[in-house]
Amino acid sequence: MLTVTIIIISVIFVFGLRIADQYQRAVVFRLGKYRATRGPGLYWIIPLLEWQQMLDIRTMTADVERQEAITKDNVPVKINAVVWYRVFDPKSAVLEVRSVDNAVIQLAMTTLRTGIGQYTLDDVLRAQQEVSNTIGQRLDSVTKPWGVKVERVEMKDVEIPESMQRSIAMEAEALREKRARLIKATAELEASEQLRRASEIIMQNPAGLELRRMQMITEVGAEQNTMTIVMMPSEFVSMARGIADGMLAGRAAGNA
């Protein structure tokens, strides 16, 4: 009799042994009521009276299928995303929601559609990281009572109508052309300013003009050409200007 009892106890003990991996947790129920969260490693449950539901607490990746949404400026877009989440409270993940993985995916789909509606198309295209972070925070606030932590949300692809793509391309081209013209105008303004300063310096020191002429001759001589340059002192130019002014004054007096 004692032997039979020992055998029965041994069988019950063996059948009650369970092993959970390092990344697993077991939610144990006794007669339908929550008993404890077990694992990792070796543990024991009462056969026939206790049963368990195993959960993976590693970070999970879920693809959110393409969703159609309307932006704040009434532009239709199609967006798909990826959600990274993990279970941090196995008890809540089992007791508070049915099929926690499916619940997270469905919530991500609806939150993605409603979240995009609060941003303009430019925000969605240019500030994708900010939009993703905002959607992730909304998801995390809802899934927290479920014992789920949403770690990250990333938009994989944003598809917009072809007509809008052409408009964006034309806008980008116009902006590039505007930028090029501004850069050219700024360069011309800076060059004219430098020339003005150079002329003021030369006017203050006439010898500087002669040096500039010599430099110009050197630059022209460096090229392989047949150009002939005749040097004329600046005094001749001043004298010729004075003669011309005198002749004009004489003609004006004669006409008077």
Number of strands: 8
Give me the secondary-structure category: alpha+beta
Oligomeric status: single chain
CATH superfamily of the largest domain: Band 7 domain
Structurally, the number of domains stands at 3
Q: What's the helix and strand layout?
A:
Elements lengths: L1 H15 E4 L3 E7 L2 E6 L2 E4 L5 E7 L3 E11 L5 E12 L2 H6 L4 H17 L4 H6 L1 H16 L4 E12 L2 H43 L1 H16 L12 H22 L1
Antiparallel strand pairs: 1-4, 2-3, 2-5, 6-7, 7-8
Structure description:
It is a single chain. By secondary structure, the chain is of the alpha+beta class. It has helices at residues 2-16, 90-95, 100-116, 121-126, 128-143, 162-204, 206-221, 234-255; strands at 17-20, 24-30, 33-38, 41-44, 50-56, 60-70, 76-87, 148-159. It folds into 3 domains: 2-55, no CATH class; 60-160, Band 7 domain (Tetrahydropterin Synthase, Chain A); 162-210. The protein is built from 8 helices and 8 strands, in the order αβββββββααααβααα. The radius of gyration is 42 Å and the shape is rod-shaped.
Task: Please give a handful of descriptors for the protein shown.
256 residues; Tetrahydropterin Synthase, Chain A; 8 strands; 55% helix; rod-shaped
Outline of this structure?
By secondary structure, this protein is an alpha+beta fold. It has helices at 2-16, 90-95, 100-116, 121-126, 128-143, 162-204, 206-221, 234-255, and strands at 17-20, 24-30, 33-38, 41-44, 50-56, 60-70, 76-87, 148-159.
